[in-house]
Amino acid sequence: MRITITPPTPADMDVLHPLLQGAYWSPGIPRETVERACAASLCALARDEAGRLTGFARAVTDYTVFAWVCDVMVVPAHRGQGLGRSLVRALMSDPEMQTIRRWMLGTADAHGVYAELGFAPLKAPERLMEVIRPPHWGRSQSLS
After folding, report:
1. Which of 5, 62, 102, 130 maximizes the CB count within 10 A of its CB?
2. What CATH number is attached to the domain comprising 98?
């Protein structure tokens, strides 16, 4: 597996978009929304020996003190091999990200995957707040 820090190509988007459409955090997300999100993020892509996309992760960041890791996605045939963790590690190791003080992410079921990278439950969750709006593509979703 080869991991690079680069934006996804249109061919990558052909693989990535359907995966994100089926994810619990982004059901039905339009391709244009995924493309815009990737364009505004630092993206890590994993490819097999033939150059096919096998995994993806992105960080929404100011490149200075804060990064939010999101959309960690591994093609089903490649799951369970540590690829998601490797993608996040690649984001965290990128030279542009070495001054980041606070890395954050949200997960429903992969806490152990990220704990090995130093992620832990919030020390002061009462300090964080959020606004959740229905997705602009008109489909309601629950993030609880």
Report:
1. 5
2. 3.40.630.30
Domain containing 32: what range? Answer: 2-119
3-state secondary structure of 111: helix
Write the DSSP symbol of residue 62. Answer: -
Instruction: Give SS3 for 47.
Output: strand
Measure Cα distances from 134 to 37, 81, 83, 143 in Å. Answer: 17, 34, 31, 10
CA 71 to chain centre: 3
pLDDT in tens, 60-108: 999 999 999 999 999 999 999 999 999 999 999 999 999 999 999 999 9
Count structural domains, the chain.
1
Domain contains 125 = no
Nearest Cα residue to 31 out of 12, 18, 46: 18
